[in-house]
Amino acid sequence: MIPIADVIYVPGIGFNLLSIAQLTARGMICEFAGDMAILSREGKIVATSTRKDMTYVLTENERRSLLKKQLQTEQSKELREVCSMLTTARYVKQQRARRDRIA
To answer: Are the beta carbons of 64 and 78 closer than 8 angstroms?
Structure first.
């Protein structure tokens, strides 16, 4: 997830705007070519966008895909953290058992 701070509320605009400067400050790479915009991070494409008039638009499918990737990343991170905690707990238990056998 990429938190975006210092947002500006524009009543009646009907859509959200993203700050490219804030995205790039958080490690995203934004490439523009023709009518396409590509957002990537660590060499992986995060989202693509097509230009409509003078605005690059994320379609509903692109937004859903972006959200799905974000959720998968968060779930993977949580799973890694749980595995790490279980491994640490197992290691501590083994060390205590060894210590008790020696004593």
So the answer is: no
